[in-house]
Amino acid sequence: MNRPDLVLLHGWGLGPQVWSALTPYLPAGLRVHTPPLPGHGGTPAHSPTLEAWSDALLPELPDRAVVCGWSLGGLVALDLARRYPHKVARLVLIGTSPCFVTRADSAGSPWPHGLAAATVAGFIDNFAHDPAATLRRFVALQALGDARRRTVSNALNAALVNSEKCDRDMLATGLELLADTDWRAALDDVRQPVQLIHGAGDALMPVAAAEWLATRLPDARLARFDDCGHAPFLSRPEDCAVLIEGVVRG
Predict the structure, then answer these.
(1) Given pLDDT bands bounded at 50, 70 and 90, which one contains residue 106?
(2) Residues 247, 240: contact at Cβ < 8 Å?
(3) CA distance 210 to 196
(4) Which partner from 42, 65, 102, 246 sits 20 to 30 angstroms from 124, CA to CA?
(5) Does the annotation mark 230 as catalytic?
(6) pLDDT digits over 3-30, tens only?
(7) What angle do CA 180, 183, 188 make, to 5 degrees?
(8) Which of 5, 79, 202, 235 is catalytic?
């Protein structure tokens, strides 16, 4: 009998090591894949688009996998599920929002469940001048609102990419993808079952974004952790592993 495949896609500025707290709790028998995103030690994308980032990961993806994406990795997972449904049987989205920045869509519908555009523009500008400090600030925001803030901060800092050794241009592109991507109009194309996992104290991607996703994706359910911030899989890895196991078993 074939073992099920689980693909874990990390967030911006961090490497696959960020999953090390979660993987010991995952069920035995899984084939776990933790490819790095472009610019984070992985294969560079050919163009600075979310689609290019997804395409760069295709060689790492087995068919019919459960794909779990966190933060920016969640946006990549959504794109893979929409364009390559034979690769993605089910989705787990952790700390994921369809739109990172407050804005109106092309029809004028407001999106209040994000960071202010000026704040994100500041991150992009600061990264260009001092990437290491910007990465540390981003990590600090991810730990806010978590009852285990020190544990989460330590794990995130241990998984930070080395801004001197990675592709700075591609890392900058990752921030721009977060700023520019608006997935609200494309959600009907995601037909796979989706397990959403979100911390109620998430300071980067408010839990209201996940609540909205749960109502708009065709087949989704939401697990909300009231004592967590942006990285519940670090704060409560055992509980997240139980949810992921439920998705794998279908």
Answers:
(1) low
(2) no
(3) 7
(4) 42
(5) yes
(6) 799 999 999 999 999 999 999 999 998 9
(7) 165
(8) 202
Residue 204 CA, distance from chain mean position: 12
Q: What is the CA 56 to chain-centroid distance, rounded?
A: 16
Q: Exactly one of 10, 40, 71, 163 is catalytic; which is it?
A: 71
Pick the catalytic residue from 146, 167, 230, 235.
Answer: 230
Pairing mode of beta strands 110-111, 103-104: antiparallel
The pairing of strands 88-94 and 220-225 is unpaired
Q: In sequence order, which residues have a C-beta less than 8 Å from that of residue 162 and are 6 or more positions away?
A: none
For the stretch 138-147, pLDDT in tens is: 999 999 999 9
Domains, in order of start, for the chain: 5-249 (3.40.50.1820)
Give strand pairing partners of 42.
Answer: 38
